[in-house]
């Protein structure tokens, strides 16, 4: 009886091991993972077996065909794409074209693509690129457009405060007025037509007053820009002659005009206190 129990236990263990191996083989089976499929979690895409991974890639669908591609690419990395879908039942020719200098230029082609195709494009600088894809043959698709953004992923940014104009603001706040003793500038439209944009004592751009248009247009030096992601990075108030604050920097959050427009519409007042949330970004690459 003891020998029989031992043999029975051995058979049970062997069966469990065989089942586990069978499950592993099924998961890695190339036939079961040969086509693109979406995972249960929205926004993610699974890759074909033994192909480049496409997690979080974009999917462009047309008819029975699918193009999966990397929509955002770091500078120096390849743009990856894979053709798939149930429409690949016979020999097909697939193409990718790029829009360059007002015309479409072929950048990828593969013939005899009976079950799909994969490819990559390299050598792209920072920028936005427009492509289109085609699948030839009966029931194929033509000229489905998609865009790819190439970014410098090694960029780091510092955030600063900017002010517009050459008139130095008073930095000693009056008691109880809510202002502070930080530096600031104002644009006097009766002063020079072109004045500076400052970050403390640093000139980071210029601003030009157009009397005919009634506007002040702000231009940054190449390394500066408005802080990205801010909906109120430009805050400004205007003051009539003799009413420019003398008790410290006006509180930016109390400005009546807020937004991201770098063209200020004047209103007949003489002084314009324009507060800017700016960034300066550098690349480590």
Automatic annotation (TrEMBL):
Signal sequence coordinates: 1-25
Source superkingdom: Bacteria
Keyword match Signal: yes
Alphabetized UniProt keyword annotations: Signal
PROSITE patterns, per the entry: PROKAR_LIPOPROTEIN
UniProt entry tagged with the keyword Signal: yes
Protein name: Lipoprotein
């Amino acid at each position: 009886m003891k020998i029989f129990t031992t043999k029975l236990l051995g058979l049970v263990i062997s069966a469990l091991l065989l089942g586990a191996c069978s499950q592993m083989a099924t998961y890695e089976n190339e036939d079961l993972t040969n086509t693109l499929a979406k995972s249960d979690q929205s926004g993610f895409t699974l890759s074909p077996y033994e192909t480049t991974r496409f997690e979080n890639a974009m999917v462009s669908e047309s008819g029975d065909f699918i193009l999966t591609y990397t929509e955002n690419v770091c500078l120096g990395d390849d743009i990856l794409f894979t053709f798939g879908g149930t429409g690949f039942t016979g020999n097909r020719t697939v193409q990718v074209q790029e829009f360059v200098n007002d015309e479409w230029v072929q950048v990828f082609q593969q013939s005899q693509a009976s079950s799909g195709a994969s490819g990559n494009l390299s050598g792209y600088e920072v920028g936005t690129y427009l492509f289109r894809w085609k699948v030839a043959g009966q029931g194929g698709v033509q000229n489905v457009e998609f865009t790819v953004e190439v970014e410098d992923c090694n960029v780091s940014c510092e955030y600063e405060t900017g002010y517009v104009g050459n008139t130095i603001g008073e930095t000693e706040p009056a008691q109880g007025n809510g202002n502070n003793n930080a530096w600031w500038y104002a644009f006097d439209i009766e002063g020079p037509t072109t004045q500076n944009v400052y970050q403390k004592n640093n000139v980071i751009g210029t601003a030009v007053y157009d009397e005919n248009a009634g506007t002040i247009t702000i231009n940054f030096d190449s390394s500066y820009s408005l802080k990205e992601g801010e909906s109120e990075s430009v805050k400004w108030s205007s003051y009539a002659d003799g009413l420019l604050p003398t008790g410290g920097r006006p509180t930016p959050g109390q400005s009546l005009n807020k937004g991201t427009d770098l063209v200020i519409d004047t209103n007949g007042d003489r002084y314009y206190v324009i507060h800017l949330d700016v960034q300066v970004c550098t690349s480590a690459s």
